[in-house]
């Protein structure tokens, strides 16, 4: 079983699986932001949806220190008891998180996470799929900087062809790809991503791409056990 390590300010503490299970049980739904960085999208999500467990995970505990400290405050002082931050490598996500989340987001990754996403590395993509519940949604937003473009297998620019390996691999992993398109600036800003704001993602000079996929529900699979997973290239739900 994967070790659960919770970030609380500058401290990293073990999190008991029973405590984690109680958090899931006490909330109507759960979302996770993978590679959350400074955790700002999780704070915004937790504040907007008090009945949702919002979990951010990143390999860099220090990056999440301030967000986790803010979340741990008393609710009367702006604390968010439904926000949780865990430290773990994206390639080896803790097993207790499997099949728990109604939504998984990967928002403007960079470095090795960006390279793994655009190359659709099986271990990485498989880990993201395993996080989802039946009917769960995977949302990925991507934008390239001059530093990342063309390095380590990252394309020099993004378009549907460049994202073909990702959407094809998602469909092969059992997801229904429901959208692959340019994101609007408003959609980018709505994520709350500090990195996206910093690099001005979603502007004409730095386009952003939005990929969405859904994990078929149990009823879908039992009703059409032999039907292939569809990949929809136009439109978005």
Description:
The protein has 237 residues and is an alpha/beta fold. Helices cover 30% and strands 24% of the residues. It has helices at residues 17-25, 40-48, 65-71, 111-118, 122-131, 164-172, 185-190, 194-199, 218-223, and strands spanning 5-8, 11-14, 29-34, 52-58, 83-87, 101-107, 132-142, 176-182, 209-214. A 7-stranded mixed beta sheet has the order 5-4-3-6-7-9-8, with helices on both faces. Strands 1-2 form a two-stranded antiparallel ribbon. The longest helix is centred in the middle third of the chain and has 10 residues, at 122-131. The chain is globular, with a radius of gyration of 17 Å. Residues 221-237 have low confidence and may be disordered.
Note the beta-strand portion. Answer: 15-25%
Shape: globular
Q: Round the mean pLDDT to the nearest integer and report it.
A: 91
Count of runs of 4 or more consecutive helical residues = 9
Strand count, sense and barrel status of the largest sheet are: 7 strands, mixed
Q: Report the end-to-end length measured between terminal Cα atoms.
A: 35 Å
Q: Please trace the helix and strand order, writing H or E for each element.
A: EEHEHEHEEHHEHEHHEH
What gyration radius follows from the Cα positions, in whole Å?
17 Å
Q: Any low-confidence stretches, pLDDT <50, length ≥5?
A: 221-237
| Tally of DSSP β-strands | 9
Strand line-up across the major sheet: 5-4-3-6-7-9-8
């Amino acid at each position: 079983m994967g070790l659960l390590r919770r970030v609380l300010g500058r401290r990293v503490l073990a999190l008991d699986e029973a405590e984690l299970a109680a958090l899931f049980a006490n909330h109507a739904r759960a979302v996770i932001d993978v590679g959350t960085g400074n955790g700002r999208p999780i704070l915004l999500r937790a504040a907007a949806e008090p009945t949702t467990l919002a979990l951010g995970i990143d390999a860099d505990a220090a990056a999440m220190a301030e967000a986790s400290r803010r979340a741990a405050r008393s609710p009367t002082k702006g604390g968010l008891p439904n926000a949780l931050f865990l430290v773990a490598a994206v390639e080896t996500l803790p097993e207790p998180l499997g099949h728990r989340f109604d939504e998984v987001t990967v928002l403007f990754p960079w470095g090795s996470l960006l390279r793994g996403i655009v190359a659709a590395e099986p271990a990485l993509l498989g880990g993201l799929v395993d996080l989802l519940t039946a009917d769960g949604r995977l949302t990925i937003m991507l934008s390239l900087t001059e530093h990342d473009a063309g390095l380590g297998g990252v394309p020099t620019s993004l378009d549907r062809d460049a994202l073909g390996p990702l959407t094809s691999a998602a469909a092969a992993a059992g997801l229904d790809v429901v959208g692959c398109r340019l994101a609007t600036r408003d959609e980018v800003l709505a994520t709350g991503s500090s990195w996206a704001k910093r690099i001005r993602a979603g502007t004409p000079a730095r386009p952003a791409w939005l990929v969405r996929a859904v994990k078929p529900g149990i009823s879908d699979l039992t009703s059409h056990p032999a039907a292939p997973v569809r990949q929809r290239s136009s439109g978005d739900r």
